[in-house]
């Protein structure tokens, strides 16, 4: 058992460009580093002002603005990960106001490989250690829980990849009689290597709930708990070590009066502040010595983290601080909370379990050994129960003992506890019920007679059932024979040249009377199908885009903020691929060189063996050439190991970069979907009057040009009319049999294409509006 208080660390977020720095200082010379925050007095409060100016807080370690992610991991997360590998539970959680860097510390950034957070670095470290330790058998599972508005959701559910929040399965809390918490509907996904674990982390981050607030562009609107479950067992041992590591990213607290948010963001802020308030209540209750009740059940987050707060766990807290003047009060509040957390003591216990399957095998083996020893002492093999003959012998011995009037007579049944117990029970029955033996015999005779009568009745019923079945089958067989005879007689009566009815195809009256009308309808369908639809980019359509939508997406992508990040990651990924390719070529060269040197050594040994056979009197000495070749092989092996370690690191970095690029691309696609749907709604509101005639359709002139091939019967005059001014032709264009009209809306230089299909019209209008907005942004106007 390990008793220790919760370790508390502080990390200061770097200031932004427009932020004014607050006054603070870090003192690392004391036994525990201290952080001093100075709040100057405000002259507007008057000359008499007793407000406190200086605040001093102590932490295990303080990381200033220049601290890197690898330093944070080595100092905070690595010791906890080592304890988890040893069999203890661990928890690391980040606490602070919104926008102070909690998610960046726990998960990491998506722009650079060096910005990896505690979770990906911990996964890499754990799987590296598991690969090195071959003395135990390890099993690793991963779970990802999100608590949004006091409702739990499973972010790793395999049936709902990258779906909406409402579609994810809800997680509920269940408590057993020992007050152990169980999470229903929370899936445990097995991860055999680092790559699978990182893919699961990426899937959970994709489903996570984020939103833009005045304090943070990508603010986490929920609490997330990423848990790594590890079980280890030595081969042949019945003891299993089970441990878990909680990596918690809490949502940031925020003052609504300062941020000025409303609507849905205000509701989320209420739930976030309420859950953090309940967390503080639990911390205060644990800090009090004589407190009998701890309010864990007030919120879902405190219920899940019950072991982490004052239980069987080694817990570490990271206080993220934003030291600008606007947020200095919230930073002081975070430091005060951290000082209260530092007073809580946890008792971490090594989690050992006995494997029930191996325990059953051991107990069976022990029972068999005891039976063999007993048979060796008594000379007889004993069964679990007495046989019928042994019971009859015991009954005779008991009757003889009871009828014997000699006071010195004894009942000797041997050193068998089964027989002794049976004799005691039998004699107790005789003493309590003297007539039991006679009644027992009578009842046995009666029961045997009843059983025999019941068996006879059952056999009679079964025999009657079989007779009925046989009769039914015989009747059916007779009917089938009769039908066969009748069919045979009718077949002989008919002639072989019987007439066969012939059916000829007939044409419907409507089609024969109006073929021109059918042709015109078909031609109209073909023409309407030739007009390109512009479906919105959504999951329902599988991500397929029309040509216009693709053009809008390309312009949107160039103007997006993440475009530079994608290009930088592409260049970096290309460099890493080229470097990995060069390393692979070098590895193959070194391997071929080693094989060549081994072949030379074998050839040298064959030559020396032949020389020894030809001159047996000559003594064999060490061959300097062979020694030189072996030294060259050792040097090449060291070079191979160096290059391979670098190649392995490059592979991990490439996989991580690919995950980052995929994440940024998905974010870009979602942003475009939102923008495109908004433009479609605007166009739908501004939609002009549509033509009501079913035979008329308004079409773009360029669309009409592209669809000329649909009507081969159209004359040259009608083709020429397509390129003429619509005003000259009274806004109508003749195309084959159907009549197509173009209608120009007021204050517009182009005609609006209307096909009669509401969905197609909405898509075309969305395309036109989006194209005009893009051209206006690029300064092209209505060109």
Automatic annotation (TrEMBL):
<keyword id="KW-0493">Microtubule</keyword>
<dbReference type="GO" id="GO:0008017">
    <property type="term" value="F:microtubule binding"/>
</dbReference>
<keyword id="KW-0067">ATP-binding</keyword>
<dbReference type="GO" id="GO:0005874">
    <property type="term" value="C:microtubule"/>
</dbReference>
<feature type="binding site">
    <location>
        <begin position="96"/>
        <end position="103"/>
    </location>
    <ligand>
        <name>ATP</name>
    </ligand>
</feature>
<dbReference type="InterPro" id="IPR027417">
    <property type="entry name" value="P-loop_NTPase"/>
</dbReference>
<dbReference type="GO" id="GO:0007018">
    <property type="term" value="P:microtubule-based movement"/>
</dbReference>
<comment type="similarity">
    <text>Belongs to the TRAFAC class myosin-kinesin ATPase superfamily. Kinesin family.</text>
</comment>
<dbReference type="Pfam" id="PF23735">
    <property type="entry name" value="KIF9"/>
</dbReference>
<dbReference type="GO" id="GO:0005524">
    <property type="term" value="F:ATP binding"/>
</dbReference>
<dbReference type="Pfam" id="PF00225">
    <property type="entry name" value="Kinesin"/>
</dbReference>
<feature type="domain" description="Kinesin motor">
    <location>
        <begin position="5"/>
        <end position="344"/>
    </location>
</feature>
<keyword id="KW-0963">Cytoplasm</keyword>
<dbReference type="GO" id="GO:0003777">
    <property type="term" value="F:microtubule motor activity"/>
</dbReference>
<keyword id="KW-0547">Nucleotide-binding</keyword>
<dbReference type="InterPro" id="IPR001752">
    <property type="entry name" value="Kinesin_motor_dom"/>
</dbReference>
<protein>
    <recommendedName>
        <fullName>Kinesin-like protein</fullName>
    </recommendedName>
</protein>
<dbReference type="InterPro" id="IPR056524">
    <property type="entry name" value="KIF6/9_C"/>
</dbReference>
<feature type="compositionally biased region" description="Polar residues">
    <location>
        <begin position="729"/>
        <end position="755"/>
    </location>
</feature>
<dbReference type="InterPro" id="IPR027640">
    <property type="entry name" value="Kinesin-like_fam"/>
</dbReference>
<keyword id="KW-0505">Motor protein</keyword>
<dbReference type="InterPro" id="IPR019821">
    <property type="entry name" value="Kinesin_motor_CS"/>
</dbReference>
<keyword id="KW-0206">Cytoskeleton</keyword>
<feature type="region of interest" description="Disordered">
    <location>
        <begin position="707"/>
        <end position="755"/>
    </location>
</feature>
<dbReference type="InterPro" id="IPR036961">
    <property type="entry name" value="Kinesin_motor_dom_sf"/>
</dbReference>
